[in-house]
Write a structure and sequence with these properties.
By secondary structure, this protein is α+β, with helices and mostly antiparallel strands. It is built from 9 helices and 8 strands.
């Protein structure tokens, strides 16, 4: 199972649990046939699709128009029509682009787009392609839902930037990717080595690898949960956060504080009120583990 299909399989499980139609927005890495095929297989009790994908197309993407009508002559009829290099359409069909006003992140901007429903060979079916001109930038979006309006596709894809901001917060503010879980059983993978080589490891080794993987996944999940808590506090307690904030900002651009500002306030109050919860269970556990780690380091040095 590749990374692309693994991601879409996770999305199908979520859509199945939610019980209604979902749209997943992904980058160009997932603009491959297997991703769209996996999403196409998830149907509800009435046979309607429950999962649709919106991705950014790769720059070398090609598609085909509908095949010409059957002539009744001998031989196999054409399956695909004329082949189109979609990036070339920005010049060839420049006069067919439609201007539109789009409001994104509270700001209005003018774009131009061209919407085409074309045959895409990787899935042997139609995909909605939306060619977008945004100032000097030109890009193509792909959508598996042929009934979704082009502007809705563009707006949905614009929200993907929030994912990048969340990754930055999780990495820089929370430190969710600064884990140090490893096992000596799992050596460093070489360039020509793949994870399929792990099948040669014995049962105990596989168990240790599984424990390390679970520890990494749990650590990252806790980081995501902590990020969500900071965002909830920023939305619900914004006035209290600004009141207790002791840092300095050149300009305050929003009434809603950032995750980093909320974290700073929590850290300040943590150390200020340290004496009130130093005897709590969680602090006792942390202290015990820290003391054990220090003793092991002293033994290693000795």
């Amino acid at each position: 199972m590749s990374l692309t299909t693994l991601m879409v399989f996770s999305a199908t499980r979520l859509a199945r649990q939610l019980g209604h139609q979902c749209i997943v927005v992904l980058d160009a890495y997932f603009a491959v046939g297997p991703s769209f095929q996996v999403a196409r297989e998830l149907l509800d009790s009435e046979g309607n699709r429950m999962l649709h994908l919106i991705t950014r197309a790769k720059r070398n993407v090609v598609a085909y128009v509908d095949p010409p009508p059957k002539t009744g002559k001998r031989g196999r009829p054409s399956i695909y029509g004329q082949k189109l290099n979609l990036m070339e359409l920005f010049c060839i069909r420049a006069n067919q682009f439609q201007p539109a006003e789009l409001k994104i992140y509270g700001q209005s901007k003018t774009i131009s787009f061209l919407c085409l429903d074309l045959l895409w060979k990787p899935i042997k079916g139609k995909v909605r392609f939306v060619l977008v001109i945004d100032g000097t930038e030109r890009f193509i979006l792909m959508c598996s839902n042929l009934s979704l309006a082009p502007l809705e596709i563009i707006k949905a894809y614009s929200y993907r930037f929030k994912i990048e901001v969340s990754f930055k917060v999780i990495k820089r503010v929370i430190g969710a990717f600064y884990y140090h879980f490893w096992t000596k059983v799992l050596s460093k993978l070489k360039k020509q080595q793949t994870t399929s080589d792990l099948t040669d490891i014995n049962g105990d080794g596989q168990r240790l690898i599984a424990h390390a993987s679970n520890a990494i996944e749990g650590f990252v999940n806790f980081g995501c949960i902590a990020t969500g808590i900071l965002q909830i506090l920023a939305l619900d307690c914004n006035k209290l956060v600004w009141k207790k904030y002791r840092g300095w900002l050149r300009t305050i651009t929003s009434e809603i504080p950032s995750e980093e500002t909320v974290r700073s306030v929590i850290q300040q109050n943590f150390f200020h009120n340290f004496r009130f919860f130093k005897d709590t269970l969680i602090y006792t556990i942390i202290t015990a583990k820290r003391s054990k780690t220090l003793r092991n380091r002293v033994k290693q040095v000795a």
